[in-house]
Write a structure and sequence with these properties.
mainly alpha, rod-shaped, single chain, 1 helix
């Protein structure tokens, strides 16, 4: 395995983790927003 391949693998893993986390945060935000707006209507 070359150094470039290793870097690509690390970057891909980091991006994957970031997008999973980002999607999770967006999901939490939408859930919180829905309950929040219901509570104050």
């Amino acid at each position: 395995m070359s150094c470039d391949e290793l870097v690509d693998l690390t970057v891909a893993k980091g991006l994957q983790r970031f997008f999973t986390f980002f999607r999770f945060m967006m999901f939490l935000n939408s859930e919180n927003y829905n309950t929040f707006s219901k509570r104050f209507r």
